[in-house]
């Protein structure tokens, strides 16, 4: 007798259909969650008086044995039994005998797999959050370490205004903090247990669904059996949050690639997180950052798959949903591996303070400060902008920085540029300190931001 095909169908299945139908190669990754859910269901059946408590105990003990076998790699997954659920039930029945056939009372694989996926999602989200926290902390530690390292900010990848490295690193951390919030929000929303929803319309057995939900650590039972068995927005939401995280990791990765080039030379990755070339003996490549950028593409692919999978689904389970596993499994794997590698790369990297500081010596990064100086002398900003623009043009023509122009040349542009405060306006270190606005790069502000970030990441 083939468990998966029941009595309705002939025992044999076409080979092409079996290849399409089977999912155990992928969904066996849900085994822990499947067994946890089955144990709770067995106890729930006993509470409902459908099973005796001895029968429930036998099932739970049998499931524990199956778990041990899987953990030790002893269970041979059988593709003919379709999926993880059927494989586990068949093995359980082989161990405990006919009582194994009672486990699936008042349950369908539809509410079973929906429950497994929520347990899985909760488990892996917790793991992703822990990894993300390590990354946040590693960045804050580097920000503390580099508190006195000055560097330019950039817009359009052109030097813009003076700042400090810590301020830049904390910008990375801000994005990741929001990623954490998105994952936590998704976790709160998926905190419902589908068991008892059955195939689509619940069950006539008097299950205490709230009690089963509590036993599995969920906040409550799902409210609607049709929704519970066919909605996967919790996966879309998580994959979405992970894709956004992936894009953020990719932005950081992009910067590490740029910064470790000879052209920038702002960062030196440790050997542990670098790779070489099979041909060019001199090479030390930032592959870690490039691979993380690559993972973002896969993460975007995962959320796209999940969105498209559900988009034309009627209300009630459709088998299309079997294809939700790989994208969400991949999304967690890719996000977590990327976060961990980037954490190590950042924690062990060295910032090249001389090069960062030297970058302030080009790009006329204090031009805005000079315009602001004129504003303080009563010149309207738009006019000041124009005047300093002409000063920059003059400096460019001579191939020097605006700070290297003589007093005469400055005064030619505007009389106030002969004043006392001009040197201070053009000094990058003072320019950073002036930016003491909330959210700015002045040292005191960044120290506040660091202690705030420390308190948040823990
Ligand atoms: N393997 C299926 C899935 O992952 C669960 C089985 C539901 N199958 C069914 N014919 N109703 O979604």
Could you characterize what this model shows?
With 458 residues, the chain is mainly alpha-helical. It folds into 3 domains: 15-105, Fumarase C, Chain B, domain 1 (Orthogonal Bundle), CATH 1.10.275.10; 110-147 and 154-358, Fumarase/aspartase (Central domain) (Fumarase C, Chain A, domain 2, Up-down Bundle); 361-457, Fumarase/aspartase (C-terminal domain) (Ribonucleotide Reductase Protein R1, domain 1, Orthogonal Bundle), CATH 1.10.40. It is 60% helix and 5% strand. It has helices at 15-21, 24-27, 31-47, 53-71, 84-96, 109-145, 165-189, 209-215, 225-230, 233-259, 287-310, 325-348, 353-358, 367-376, 381-398, 407-413, 422-425, 428-434, 443-457, and strands spanning 150-155, 158-164, 192-193, 220-221, 267-268, 350-351. It has a two-stranded antiparallel ribbon with strand order 1-2. It has a two-stranded parallel ribbon with strand order 3-4. A two-stranded antiparallel ribbon has the order 5-6. The chain is elongated. The two termini are 56 Å apart. The mean pLDDT is 97. Residues 23, 27, 83, 109-110, 113, 317, 319, 321-322 line the site of arginine.
Q: Could you tell me how far the N terminus lies from the C terminus, measured between alpha carbons in angstroms? A: 56 Å
Binned, the helix content reads 55-70%
Low-confidence stretches: none
**Which cofactors or ions or other ligands sit in this model?**
arginine
Query: Mean of the pLDDT scores?
Result: 97
Number of strands: 6
| SS class | mainly alpha
**Number of distinct helices:** 19
């Amino acid at each position: 007798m083939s468990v998966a095909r029941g009595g309705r169908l002939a025992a044999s299945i076409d080979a092409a259909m079996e290849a399409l139908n089977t999912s155990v190669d992928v969904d066996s990754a849900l085994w822990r969650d499947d067994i946890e859910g089955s144990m709770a269901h067995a106890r729930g059946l006993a509470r409902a008086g459908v099973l005796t408590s001895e029968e429930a105990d036998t099932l739970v003990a049998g499931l524990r044995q199956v778990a041990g076998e899987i953990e030790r790699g002893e269970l041979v997954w059988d593709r003919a039994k379709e999926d993880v659920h059927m494989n586990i039930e068949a093995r359980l029945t082989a161990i405990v005998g006919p009582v194994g056939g009672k486990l699936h009372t008042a349950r369908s694989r539809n509410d079973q797999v929906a429950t497994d996926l929520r347990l899985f999602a909760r488990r892996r989200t917790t793991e992703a959050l822990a990894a993300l926290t390590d990354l946040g902390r590693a960045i804050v530690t580097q920000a503390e370490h580099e508190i006195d390292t000055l560097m330019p900010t950039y817009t359009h990848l052109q030097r813009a205004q003076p700042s400090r490295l810590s301020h830049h690193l904390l910008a990375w951390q801000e994005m990741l903090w929001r990623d954490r919030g998105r994952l936590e929000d998704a976790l709160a929303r998926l905190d419902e247990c589908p068991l008892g929803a059955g195939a689509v319309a619940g069950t006539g057995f008097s299950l205490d669904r709230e009690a089963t939900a509590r036993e599995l650590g969920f906040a409550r039972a799902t409210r609607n059996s049709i929704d519970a068995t066919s909605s996967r927005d919790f996966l879309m939401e998580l994959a979405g949050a992970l894709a956004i995280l992936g894009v953020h990791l990719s932005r950081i990765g992009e910067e590490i690639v740029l910064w470790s080039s000879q052209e920038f030379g702002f960062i030196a990755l440790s050997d542990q997180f670098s790779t070489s070339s099979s041909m060019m003996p001199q090479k030390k490549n930032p592959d870690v950052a490039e691979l993380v950028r690559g993972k973002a593409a896969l993460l975007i692919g995962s959320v796209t798959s999940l969105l498209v999978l559900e988009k034309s689904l009627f209300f009630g389970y459709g088998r299309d949903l079997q294809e939700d596993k790989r994208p969400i499994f991949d999304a967690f794997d890719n996000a977590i591996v990327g976060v961990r590698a980037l954490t190590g790369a950042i924690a062990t990297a060295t910032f090249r303070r001389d090069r960062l500081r030297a970058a302030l010596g080009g790009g006329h990064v204090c031009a805005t400060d000079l315009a602001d100086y004129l504003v303080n002398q009563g010149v309207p900003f738009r006019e000041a902008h124009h005047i300093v623009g002409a000063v920059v043009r003059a400096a460019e023509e001579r191939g020097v920085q605006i700070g290297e122009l003589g007093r005469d040349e400055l005064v030619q542009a505007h009389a106030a540029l002969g004043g006392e405060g001009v040197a201070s306006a053009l000094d990058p270190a003072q320019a950073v300190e002036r930016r003491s606005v909330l959210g700015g790069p002045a040292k005191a502000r960044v120290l506040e931001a660091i202690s705030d970030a420390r308190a948040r990441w823990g």
